[in-house]
Amino acid sequence: MDFNCIAPTIVFQEVPNEISLCFSITGCKIGCKGCHSTELWNENYGMSLSKENYLHWLKKYKGLISCVVFFGGEWQANALIEKLLLAKNLGLKTCLYSGEKHIDINISQHLDFLKTGAWHAELGGLESPTTNQIFRDMKTGEKLNHLFIKDSINYNSLQGADNVAA
Ligand code: SF4
């Protein structure tokens, strides 16, 4: 059985150092309070991500992307595993963003990157030092949350540099 998704988009920040094609899968049952994407809760929303549709998207962006990222879909393991294997066969890396704490090994063995943890507004997302969420390199096991924390820019010093140049 296939799952539905909304039209995929190219994303640059969800997987550090990769250009990813992002598929948001509908039918999420986690129900995070403050979810920014409640349209994803309805499994009938969006279009069917059949094998044919999926390959169409991957071919369309061939040579432009290095990774495929799924927002959800772990609730239909077979459909997700099929898509991960197709991406791997085309030489693409794979990533899953899940609100769950743990992902079945049958899925995770096909992932290069995995984000786990539900959304809690008071803890913040991956860029927050207090977050409950974890972004991991699945090949090395390394936690990569630090790559999401943006360097703080000291605008005063930039202004000072401007003045010197003038
Ligand atoms: S896992 Fe994501 S889509 Fe699902 S409820 Fe939580 S924030 Fe919303």
Keywords:
166 residues; alpha/beta; TIM Barrel; six-stranded mixed β-sheet; two-stranded antiparallel sheet; 23% helix; disordered C terminus; binds iron/sulfur cluster; metal ion binding; metal-binding; iron-sulfur
Description:
By secondary structure, this protein is of the alpha/beta class. The protein has a single domain (4-165), classed as Aldolase class I (TIM Barrel). It has four helices and eight strands, in the order ββββαβαβαββα. The chain has helices spanning 51-60, 77-89, 105-108, 155-165, and strands at 4-5, 9-11, 20-24, 47-48, 67-71, 93-97, 113-116, 134-137. It has a six-stranded mixed sheet. A two-stranded antiparallel ribbon has the order 1-4. Strand 6, helix 3 and strand 7 (113-116) form a beta-alpha-beta unit. The radius of gyration is 18 Å and the shape is globular. The protein starts with a strand and ends with a helix. 27% of the residues are buried. The structure holds iron/sulfur cluster. Iron/sulfur cluster is lined by residues 28, 30-32, 35, 37, 40, 99, 118-119.
